[in-house]
Amino acid sequence: MSERKPRIAVDMDEVIADPLSKFISLYNRDYGIPLDLQILPGNEMYHHVPENIKMKLWDYINEKGFFRDLAVLPDSVEVLKQLQEKYDIFIVSAAMEFPNSLQDKYEWLAEHFPFIGWQNIIFCGHKIVNVDILIDDRIKNFVDFDGRKLLFSSPHNMLLTGYERVNNWKEVGEKLL
Amino acid sequence: MSERKPRIAVDMDEVIADPLSKFISLYNRDYGIPLDLQILPGNEMYHHVPENIKMKLWDYINEKGFFRDLAVLPDSVEVLKQLQEKYDIFIVSAAMEFPNSLQDKYEWLAEHFPFIGWQNIIFCGHKIVNVDILIDDRIKNFVDFDGRKLLFSSPHNMLLTGYERVNNWKEVGEKLL
């Protein structure tokens, strides 16, 4: 493995894809939750909807199509394209938790990140990947990982300290290019 | 990572699932290829059908449903159940090459290997998994892997030497239990 390019594993949801805006728009459509809802630091989306519709989140996320039309997070396409010259980029998503998402996520990646081939896409549960750098918004994925961990900012992780944090893709580019 | 159970990554096709019999039955149905066809050592399935229908293989494999009803290879369920007591078992399939297979493979695993949770299923391209043992029929998946490699016998790999070979799941059990 000595002469290979360094490898970066990149999470999907809340790192390159935006499920939060989709949740908000669905909650708005079905229950009138305001579209300008802000998720407070340390909170998950479900902390911001009334108790009786909290669990609706799981219906949304398990629905076929949920992941197919998520917005792409700013600058992720451009920065990943640049990083690809220097690194071997893998997309690593814990998609297996939501089996209906598998095809959607595959097609979403093919549409927005066509420069990342199927060889470099990994849908899994535990992220037991042999890479050098992991960019993720969930610290549970860092627990068993020995490489460099970049915590990608998302509302739910904003109170966490002690991690190397990146707030957006421009910052990822500054650190890794 | 020091106190974890050792991890085994197990390939799907030609290791726990039997696509070859399915190919033969489809070729039989469509072109009268005999059902008792034997694949000679070193050969792939496509070496055993006439030139003009060789590529039909790719149509079969890309069809939704192809992977959903494959036969389970003998003793794989029982031995993996036993191995699970001592090892952390991951199913690692290069399913990403055939996006239509993702849901089928997920459902097939849920049906036949319900004791393996979604956390331990990995659909990928390159198998860059951080495990201790890899059981696979394709040596290309061994190239970049530092752990113990068990070559699971399948017609196409029978001429290869220099690998630790297992001919069936009973032998896997004898080696690893």
Key attributes of the depicted protein:
homodimer; 177 residues; Rossmann fold; 2 domains; six-stranded parallel sheet; two-stranded antiparallel ribbon; 5'(3')-deoxyribonucleotidase (chains A, B); HAD-like_sf (chains A, B)
Give a brief description:
Two copies of one chain form a homodimer. With 177 residues, chain A is of the alpha/beta class.
Spatial order of the strands forming the largest sheet of chain A: 5-4-1-6-7-8
Helix content of chain A: 25-40%
User: Greatest interface and its residue counts?
Assistant: A-B, 28 and 28 residues
- The domain count of chain A comes to 2
> Largest beta sheet of chain A, briefly?
6 strands, parallel
Strand content of chain A: 15-25%
The termini of chain A sit apart by 22 Å
Number of helices of chain A: 5
CATH superfamily descriptor of the largest domain in chain A: HAD superfamily/HAD-like
CATH architecture of the largest domain in chain A: 3-Layer(aba) Sandwich
Could you say which overall geometry of chain A the principal axes of the C-alpha atoms support? globular
Indicate the low-confidence ranges of chain A by residue numbers: none
* Class computed from helices, strands and strand pairing of chain A: alpha/beta
Q: Report Rg of chain A.
A: 16 Å
> What's the CATH topology name of the largest domain in chain A?
Rossmann fold
- The CATH class of the largest domain in chain A turns out to be Alpha Beta
- Let me know the number of strands of chain A: 8
Mean pLDDT of chain A: 96
The sequence of SSEs of chain A as H and E is: EEHHEHEHEEEEH
Family (chains A, B): Belongs to the 5'(3')-deoxyribonucleotidase family.
InterPro entries (chains A, B): 5'(3')-deoxyribonucleotidase (IPR010708), HAD-like_sf (IPR036412), HAD_sf (IPR023214)
GO molecular function (chains A, B): 5'-nucleotidase activity
Active site (chains A, B): 11, 13
